[in-house]
Amino acid sequence: MTWAEDLASLKERARDIQDLGHAQAVLAWDQETLMPPKAGPSRGRVLGVLSRLAHERIADQKIASLLASVESSGKLKPGSDDAAFIRLVRRYHEHASRVPSELVAEIAEHDSRSQQAWVQARPANDFAAVEPYLAKSVELRRRVSEYFPEHAHPLDTHIDAADEGMSVAVLRTLFRQLRDELVPLVQAVTAKPAPDDGFLSSKFPKAKQLAFSHKVLARLGYDFEGGRLDESAHPFSITLGAGDKRITTRVRSDESDVLYSLMSTIHEFGHSTYEQNIKPEYDGTPMFTGASAGVHESQSRLWENIVGRSRGFWTFWYPRLQRAFSKALKEVDLESFLRAINKVETSLIRTEADELTYNLHIIIRFDLECELMEGKLAVKDLPEAWGARYQSDLGRRAADDRDGVMQDVHWYGGYWGVFQSYTLGNILSAQFYSTALQQQPELAAQLAAAKTSGLHRWMKKNIYQHGSKFTPTELVQRVTGSPLTIAPYIAYLREKYGALYGL
Ligand code: ZN
Q: Tens digits of per-residue pLDDT, 140-153?
């Protein structure tokens, strides 16, 4: 066969693998939104079969020989879509084929049991019940890392899978710089009187919350012809196929905190609008998704925090919110509302943390995850290490493990080497945003009037349309003219919180 025929054969295979993934996504979306509870076990089995089929296909030795033929042909133009296609197929093939399928199956089964154990143990505050699962999880991840001897740290293989090109060594330096900037800023802000945000716990009728989310999505430019908004226990965004990128949100059961559902919606909008605006011709290739977990998160956080918690956004939306929820908000003016939704306080729960303290929660998890993988920290000592770090970094210690080391599903559900993506997303959101403002200064006035289409067009042109054609490192350099840097993020936080808190 010629190299062109081999390339065509690879493309056919890649399309099948993508479509198997989309079939899994349909079932997973249904599982989280509509599926009746009794369907759990059989759904788990079906998802397992699809996942195994997809894994077998990408790990197939035939892919290796086709890749070798195309790579050695010398015919791929550097920078072309085909070259990116081959790079990504190589990357996924290596990740899938180096790890023996028995180990992959063992991990899938273990993770599922571990997550179920956590679901039971967390409300019971029973760390002892999950401890053996966690110890086994660490061991399994260390075994996976052994198949990637090119990585210096046992966590690097897992970090690289989520954020290509990142490593423990790079992140340690980055996070140290970030922490050095954040700690004094948090101290300065929390020394000021805390704004009153009690009114956010009023009752906001659920139907109105969802209707408001729909309106905000429409004005932000969400494509309802190619997506939809539903409810689930945990908000998420998911791609079910070309022309089908969905999001979910959650309204609190007591209907309090309209911001919770609205900000979750805007966050997921950022993920979904990225996927909705990838070049349609990338459908069927591994380019048909975001560049990395961190770059993806830069978009959810850009729209949620930089846009969604800004003065310009609320100058437009707040009168509308007040009209929709007049009982709860009629006595609250815009200034009080803005201070309340940007309230900074050290807290114990990551998902409830504000923009300023959020990354301190991540850095704690990252450091402990490294130590667990290195074997420096035993799983049995993890709750104590967690408490000690919260005490030293945030000045608080959780009363129990439920709100301490057991609060996040990640380690219990098998998600290792992913916490860094949230902070990388925060850093990148500001780096991309400041570049957009430099290149198009008129965006500032538009955003002050809650007109976001110009910013959205810029993101589409520079980031969204490319999917994962470029590596995250290439993309950041190409878009911003510089490698990843915390400077724009720190400047953004200083300016915003300096103004809000009169520093
Ligand atoms: Zn996200």
A: 999 999 999 999 99
Q: What is the pTM of this model?
A: 0.96
Query: What is the DSSP annotation of 460-500?
Result: HHHTGGGTTSS-HHHHHHHHHSS---SHHHHHHHHHHHHHH
* Distance in Å, CA 1 to ligand 1 centroid: 43
* CA–CA separation, 181 and 107 (whole Å): 39
Type of residue found at 278: I
Cα(310) to ligand 1 centroid in Å equals: 19
CA 155–ligand 1 middle distance (angstroms) = 21
Structure tokens at 413: 């559900």
Phi, psi at 66, each rounded to 5°: -65, -40
Q: How far apart are CA 282 and CA 80, in angstroms?
A: 13
- For 346-366, give the DSSP string: --S-GGG--TTTHHHHHHHHH
Give pLDDT, residue 258.
Answer: 87
Ligand 1 geometric centre to CA of 502 (Å): 30
Residue 353 in tokens: 């943390």
Q: Please determine, for residue 112, whether its predicted confidence score (pLDDT) is greater than 90.
A: no
Cβ atoms 372, 116 nearer than 8 A: no
Note the pLDDT tens digit of each residue in 424-470.
999 999 999 999 999 999 999 999 999 999 999 999 999 999 999 99
Tokens 């976001």 correspond to: 452
Q: Indicate which residues carry an active-site annotation.
A: 268
Tokens of 26: 């349909």
| Per-position b or e across 24-49, b if 16+ CB within 10 A of its CB | bbebbbebbeeeeeeeeeeeeeebee
DSSP letters for 209-253? HHHHHHHHHHHHT--GGG--EEE-SS--EEEEETTEEEEEE---T
Which band of pLDDT confidence, cut at 50, 70 and 90, is reported for residue 41?
confident
**DSSP structural state of residue 203:** B
DSSP state of 149: T
